[in-house]
Structures are given as C-alpha cells and as structure tokens.
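#dry-run=false #mode=assembly
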Amino acid sequence: MPWLSILMGVSVLGALGVTLVRNDKLAKQFTLGVSLVVLALAIAMAVGFNPNGDKFQFVEKYVWIRSFGVHYAVGVDGIALVLILLSVVLVPIVVLASWHDAEAGKRSVRTYFSLLLVLEAMMIGVFAATDVFLFYVFFEAMLIPMYFMIGSYGGAQRSYAAVKFLLYSLFGGLLMLVAVIALYSIADKHTFMFSDLIGTIQDVNTQKWLFLGFFIAFAIKAPLWPFHTWLPDAAAQAPAGAAVLLVGVLDKVGTYGMLRFCLELFPDAAKYFTPLVITLSVIGIVYGAIVAIGQTDMKRLIAYTSVSHFGFIAMGVFAMTTNAGAGATLYMVNHGFSTGALFLIAGFLIHRRGSQYIADYGGVQKVAPVLAGTFLVAGLSSLSLPGLSTFVSEFMVLVGTYQRYLVPAIIATTGVVLAAIYVLWMYQRTMNGPTAESVKKLPDLSVREKWVIAPLLALLLVFGFYPKPLLDMIHPAVKSTLTTVQVSDPAAVVPVAKEAQ
Amino acid sequence: MEPAEIIQHSGGVIGASWLMIALPLLGAAILLLGGRRTDRFGHLLGVAMSVAAFVVAALAFFQLLGFAPGERRRGVSLYDLIPGITKIGLLVDPLSISFCLLITFVGSLIHIYSIGYMAHDPARRRFFAYLNLFVAAMLLLVLADNYLGLYVGWEGVGLASYLLIGFWQHKPSAATAAKKAFIVNRVGDFGLAIGIFTIFATFHSVSYAGVADGIAKGGSIPFTAIGLLLLLGACGKSAQLPLQSWLLDAMEGPTPVSALIHAATMVTAGVYLVVRSGPIFQATDTAQLVVTIVGVATLLAGAIIGTAKDDIKKALAGSTMSQIGYMMLAAGIGPAGYAFAIAHLITHGFFKADMFLGAGSVMHAMNDEVDMRKYGGLRKLMPITFVTFFIGYLAIIGFPLLSGYFTKDGIIETAVEHNAILGWLAVLGAGITGFYMSRLVFMTFFGKKRWEADAHPHESPAVMTWPLIILSVGAVVLGAFLVLGNRFMIFLAPAVGRPEELPSFAPFSPTGLVTLALVAVGAGFAWVRYGSAEVPAVAPRGSFLTTFARRDLYGDALNEALFMRPGQWLTRLAVFFDNRGIDGLVNSLAALIGGTSGRMRKVQTGFVRSYALSIFVGAAVLVGAWFVVGNL
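#status=ok
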C-alpha cells in the first residue's frame, strides 16, 4: 500500500474539502475529522514498520522530471517515521486548540483550517522525501502556509514577524538550492535520489562547500545560534496553534536535515565542521537559556527555551555516537510534545487575560488550579524532569556527547540548572503569590482545553517511563547513519560483564 | 570485607517489592487526577498507601532475614528503561531495606499526624497526594539497582520537596523558598549527572553491579572525579556546604513536610549515595577526605546557625544540617563508618521527626507562631508534646543510653581514631549541640509565658500525639538496639562491607567522657542564659558573631554576591545583546537591502511581502534557467 501518499493525499483532499464547507463550525469539525483519520492511518502504518528491516520502508518511486532525474520518491526509516508520527499527533491537537483562534484573523476561519491541512501534507512529505530535490521542494513550500498563518492570523506585529520569518528562511533555502544543484552536477549521476548520491562526493573541499549550503539552511531553520532571532518574533506573533507547528515540527526539519543530509551526504565535511557546530550548539544551549530567563513575554520566553533545546539536538547529532544521535532524534519528538504543551497552555492563559506579559499575571493557581497544574507539568518537561520523556532524550544526548566531547557536554549540562531557573521563575511569577486583581475571575480550563492538553501530557509521561517503543524504531536508523558516516562509538575504558550492565 | 554478590530473585515479597513504589505512586495519581471528588477520602487513601508500602517493606525485610547473610543482596529485574544505556531493576539488600523501613514507617506516622495537622486546610487532599508522591520517589531512589534509577528518584523527591515547600503558594516567601530549593538542588544534580556520565563513559554501565565488576577488573578509572561529582550531588540534596542555603528557607513548608522530607528522609539521601557508592569512594583517598571535611564543616556550621535562630523550625533545620554533617563525616571514613552513618541516620530520623512534629504540635497550639521568644512555659499545658519532645532532645544531645548517645558517639569515636583533628571538631560540635538544643527546649517549654494575647495553647489531638509517642519510643531504644553487639554493622556488612576488626563499645571512653562534659557545659550555659534568666521578647542586638550566625553565616549573602547579582547582570546583558546586537545586525542588513530597493519603489507596490514573493519567483526562474542552460 502506498501509505505515505495516502497520508498526504487525505490531508490535501481534506484541505480542499474544508474550503468547500460553507459553515465555519462544520469546517472545524471536518478538519478535526480529517486530521484524526490521518493520525489513525499513520499509526496503522507505523505498526507495520519493521525496525530491523530495510533502511527505507513504505517506499514509492515515480519519475517526476525525467530529464533531470527528479523523482517523486518517498519512504521512511525510523527517524523519519517518528517525526511523521509527531506531526500527525500534533495536528489534531492544534486543530482542537485553535478552535476560536482564527476568528479574529484577516482571512476566513475556513482558510486557516485549510492551511493547517495543507501544512500537514507538507510536513509528512518533507520527512518522507527520499529524493533530495523533492525534499527541497517541500522544504520551501512549507513556508507558504506558515507565512499566511502568521501573517493573517497573528498578533499585532504579525506582518513584521511573518516577513522576517519568510525572508530568513528563503535566504537559507536559496543557499541550499545552490548546494542541491551543485551536488547534482558534481555527482553526475543524473539523479536526485538520496541513496544514489551517498558517497558520490569524494573530494573533501567540495564536500565542505556543499555541506555549508545545506547546513546554513538547516541552522536557520532549526534555528541554531546565531541564526535564531527570527524565531522569538515569529513564535510570539503566531497564533498558539501555528507556533506549536512552527517550533514543534517545522524547526525539526532543520535538525532532521542535519542528521539525514549533512551527515550522510558529506561525512568528511561533517567531521571537519563538528567542532564548529558543537561550539555553536553549546553557545546556543547556554545563551538561549540565559536570554529566556530575561524575557518578559511568555511566548518569547518559550521560544528562547527552544533555542536552547535546539542546541541540545544539534549537539547530539554532531556528537556522532549512538546514544547522542538516538537521543537527539528522540529529543525532536519530545520537544514537540513539551513545547507544544507549553505554547498551548500559555495560549489559553493569554487568550483569557489578553496579555502575553508575565508581569500581568500572578496567583493564577488559586483561581485556575488545573490550568496551573498542567502548566507546571509542561514546564517540568521543559526542564527535563526525570519521569517525563524529555529527560530521557536530554540524558541520552548529554551522555552520548560526553562519551566523545567531555568539555562541551559539561558546559551543556549547566543548561539543566538554567532551565530550572527559567521555568520555575516564570511559573512563580504567573501562578504563585497573591492573586492579581486582573486574573481574579479567570476561568479554569474548559473541557475542550483539557482534551487538548491531556494527550500531550500523557505522551510525555508514558514515554518518560517507557521510551523503548520509540527508541526501538530510532536506534537501527541512527546506527545505519553512523555506519554511513564511518564512525563508531567510543569503547568503555573498563568493559564490564554483559549481565552486569 | 567486600560486599556480597547480587543474586537475581523473582519470588516472594522481594520479587514484588516494586509494589512499595507503585502503591504510593498510584495513590498520588488517584488524588491528583481525581480532583475534588477525592477530597472526602483523600487523606485516608494517602495514609493507606503509605502503610501498605510499609507492610510490603516489613515483609520483604523478614524474607531477607531468612537468607544466609552472604545471600542477602537480591536483585529484581524490571524492564529496559533506556535501551542502549540501562535496564532498571531493584536491589533489595540490607542497606536499601533499612531505608525502606525508615521511610515507610516514619512516613506513615507523619501521614497519620498530617490528618490532624492539615485538618483545616482546604487543599488537604493535594497535600496527601504530594506526600505519597514523595514516598514513591524516595523508595525508588533507595531501591533502584543503578545510578540512573537513583537519579530519577533523586529528582522525583526534589519535585515533591518543591511542591511541598511551596504548598502554601499564595505566600510569596513559600513560593520563593520552593524555587530556591529546586534550583540549588539542580546545582547539585549537575554534579551528580556528570558523575553518572563519567560512570557510563568508563564502564558502559550505570548499574551498581556493573560498577563493582569494573572496579574489580581494574584499569584507569577516574575514581576521584566520580567521587567528587557524586559528592556535589550529595551536598545539594543533603544541604551540606556549600549547597546548604536552601534548607533553612525550606521551613516555609508545612511542618509535617519539614519532619519527613527535610529531616528524616530526603535530606539524608546524600549519605545514602556516598555509602552506596562505597566501592568508588574507597578507591580514592582524596574524595573520601573531602567528604569528611564537608561533613565536619557542615556539622559545625549547622550547629552555629542553630544557636542563633529564634524561629523554632529554623533552629531545628540548622540542627538537621549539623546532624547530617555527622553522617557525612562517618560516610567519608569508609566501612568503619558506614554502619554508624546509617545507624545515626535512622535514629536521627526518629528523634528529629519527633521534635519537628512536636514543634508542629506547639505551632498548632500557638496560632502558627514560630518565634520561640513568644513561647515559654508550655510544658504544663502540653504535657505529651513536652515529654516526647524532651525525649527527642535528650536523644540528640547524646544523653547516656538514649539513641543519639550510641549512634553519635560511634561516629565521634570512629572519627577521632580516623583523623584526630576532624574527630575533635566533631566533639566540639556535640558541645554546641548541647547548647542550642537546650536553648530551644528552655525557651519553648520552660520559663515564664511570653505568648501573644490571642494564644490559647492546648494539647494536640490524639491523631497527632500518638505519632509523637511512637517516635519518642524509637528515640529511646533504637540506638542501643542497633549499636550494641555491633548488630547493625553485621547486618549491613553484606551490602557495604565492614572493617576487619569490629569495634567494641566502651561506655564512658575518654572521648565519650569529654563529649559528655562538653554537652553538659553547653546545656548549663543555655540554662543560665535561657532557663533561669528572663528571655527578652525581642532579640538583643548581639555581637558580630551572633549576627554572623543569625544570617546563616552569610551563606545567602555570598550566593547573592557571587551568583545571583552577576547572573541578573549577565541576563540583562544577554537580552540586550540579543535584541540590539544579533537581531540589530540582522535588521540593519535587511534595512540596507530595503533601502536599496527603496530607490526602485516607484515601480513597486511598496509591500515588503511582495518583495519576498519576488525573491521566491526570481529563485524559481533562476533554477529553471540553470536547468535549461545546464542541459544544453
């Protein structure tokens, strides 16, 4: 069965269908239905995935532009699969969360939900693409629905934020385009198929230039320090649901791209640039956290925590050990749930009070205990508390990095202290203390809102204690990647008996 | 003697010992998710889950006793926690089971006491949920068979501690104290985490068995680094210098919390970590020396702080720091000290919980007043509280034949033999203990009444006094039971090893006599100042030294000057740099391009959006052109 095409097809048809529905309420229900169908299909597909089978599964390959060797070719390994699952889990949640968010927008409610489904199809496509050109097309095309979601439904500064987001991303995209075309011509294989391009560029200098073309695009997308300043603006101005997909999924395309393309296509260049990338990552971890502490706007604060978290992911990717790589992949998934929950709950809060400023709150716990409680759990997931899945991935990244790069891992670990400060201080200022006059009548979470948050927190908890199902999918893919790059894990100083491990 | 091998085990209560963790965790989940529906029976469910965990612990203990001493380390496999890093299982051995019994027994008593203490609190259910959560996390901490499992429990108790210190979160002071406790603990956890990374990088295993196996095999193992990193973690959790500052603020939490978490159990986790990591510490004299120095420094610092506090809970908190310092000192000595460290930990768990709950009983009677200068003469009105508290007091100062006499004296004797300077400093600490504890008792229960006009002290209800009575019985008998005949040392040996030669208990040894004499001097001095003399209602200004002690030895001032203010400054700088520096650069680049294109504005629509679109279209054209040209 062409699972991946079906997933995208259902989303696209759904998007078209939404535009035909005349009634806003019906349009929302229809969108929710479509996204749930996609979710169900994706789960059915994932069940059929064999972690120890072929590298790419559910492959489809059709010639698209014959003269250039461009294919519509899709397929997933464990890494792509978990990211697709992340995307299709988040979409219905975002639909439900955005129920009333599009009403104040410049365009119609139906357009918003239609854009969401278009975006869903593209998110699936970008992770599933096994043709480099197809990947590029999705990579760029994804900008369009997100641009409109921010620019037409966002906050007061939405135009500035949307244009900044678009220009920044286009700049990166153009660099990647040049690199993609150069790769095609230098490899001289008359194909854009990812697996055929592996190992074709032998010259290290060529690798370095091509690597940079891809890497800068991904570093802007992720975003890595110092390419990050578009993110706080975009995230703060986007409606909460769009912010979740932006930070939760779209940005992951950057870190996914590093792992998939930068490492496998340009292994020597990747090794050459590792010290630089790890340095940028570590700076991002510490810097993002410190700047987050100083924020006065909740959404910007959450955006900066993500800058810090993306540092962890990039560091894990480039540490090139099994633990760090698998941890980084798992981190991408967990971060989607964790930051998703934070953005959505902050969104609920902001919607009630009409302000993004932390100082406008105080003592909310007293009047809205459920809202406060879920906010705390989401916050604790952001500071990687053990028992929540974010801990597993952060621990894996750190221990995996430590195995090879001692000092960066130690500096990065200070992030756990800084995270405690930015999360708990924000929580204290908004939720604790005497109840502020302006929030005295704040209602607690509604039933719909509880249904939005519950699945996210449940996933964080379940995978916190039992991450094995995800890791079983991720591990073989990461090992295969590291084999392509020709690195092996550092050995134990003192190997111990197997049963004692 | 080396610790015994771990034997895999699946049957009986030991095989089901995961229930100890699961039951309170289930209780917490029901109470938190059930919401107001569970208000009516929440406290009862909380107590039931804690008692059930105690029953499991007791049964497991008796099953363990049924094995020969050399076979008393039983491993229970659970599941693959993080594939590629570690599985998780439980290790039921004399060390962990001792903790389990202490945690669940004292924990259950405190649960019961809280029914009365929190009776009028509208959020009592939530309180019991957090207490259950704490018990579950603490049991995971001591039962896990590897460092990662320990770490999960370690941060879990940190979370419970955060939630409970800030339980009355509408009070800004409580919310701040909770946050501070968590953050300072995270500094310690930073060390612990890197210690675990080092262990993994060295052995590719984080299990206790794996580490022991690796050490037996030998090789270049960074013992000292691991030891010091673990110690940093221990300092955070156990409020040892230099990470002690959170504990005094933690007294913002309800008093049963102070008794359970910040006296009897959680704060002793650092001692557990050091003892459990014995194979690592015993291989590094440096780390062991640092452990003993930290212990002695903290036992003195805590005692000095205890002398100057008028807040009854803070005085007791200083005392807790100090007593854990004694345990740390013993734990740093090695197998000769392990049994005394843990024995003192257990007896301290009883007598300190007894005194904290007693303090809670007093506060309950005095409209939540904590200032001892507004107490006085309470012994007649609160006879049960007074008698039980007084027993705890005698136990902690080491009054002959009571618990503290045996366990603390054991530490002091071992320490003097190990390192004379450190040992005699510990003796000095005992003298100060005699002073500050006597001061506390005299100010509270003796002398004239100095109450506020609206205070009507009365004895607490039975649900609160019975736990006091039971704990005070422990404070009397446990020390003799554990120490005489080296009973506890022999029991623990399969888990932690033991010295070649068992110590012989000598009543009234020279060291012991000096200690007793100093305690008597301290108590006598306290009587002169606070017993026979009038206690002023307002604290006198005092000397420089008094201020030094009142300000917690300037620990907070130091933290503020070294970390907080530079941190705030750094944060502001970073935010400024981000807005003006990086983003400013990006925006001026954009402005430059925008300015250039502005000259062509007459033929453009003027919308920045359309510029973006034209870039996109232009790019597409370029691509197309490339293909056409490239293929000709």
